[in-house]
Design goal:
alpha+beta, Glutaredoxin, about 15% strand
Length: about 120
């Protein structure tokens, strides 16, 4: 069971709080579209607008990191997990898409729609 909670890490880095890791992994696994965001970030706003406008029938779960006490720890864990230090972090069907620029480019190529509709 512990190995399934650890995801791709062979061991949990000491700076990662296990409850934060479990929270993030559960959120990714249980939601088709999840966006880890900051409400003050213009790139996050653009990404959220893209999903709201282009996929109104899909529920994009948004976690506003700057409105959570553990937001810093969540962002730190996401940086370790993905190698991306900035927000937003967008996951579709458990796959890390990247940030706003990545999502916008994937949308223009048609890749985003294929992932959302899968």
């Amino acid at each position: 069971m512990l190995s399934s909670l650890l995801g791709f890490f062979t061991s949990t880095p000491p700076e990662v709080n296990m409850s934060v890791k479990e929270l993030v992994e559960t959120a990714i696994n249980e939601n088709k579209i999840i966006i880890f965001s900051k409400s003050t970030c213009p790139y996050c706003r653009r990404a959220k607008a893209l999903f709201a406008t282009e996929y109104p029938d899909e529920t994009a779960v948004v976690v506003e990191l700057n409105q959570r006490e553990d937001g810093y720890d969540i962002q730190n864990y996401l940086a370790i997990k993905t190698g991306q230090g900035t927000v937003p972090h967008i996951f579709i069907n458990k796959q890390h898409i990247g940030g706003n620029d990545d999502a916008q480019a994937a949308f223009k190529r048609g890749d985003l729609t294929r992932l959302v509709k899968a």
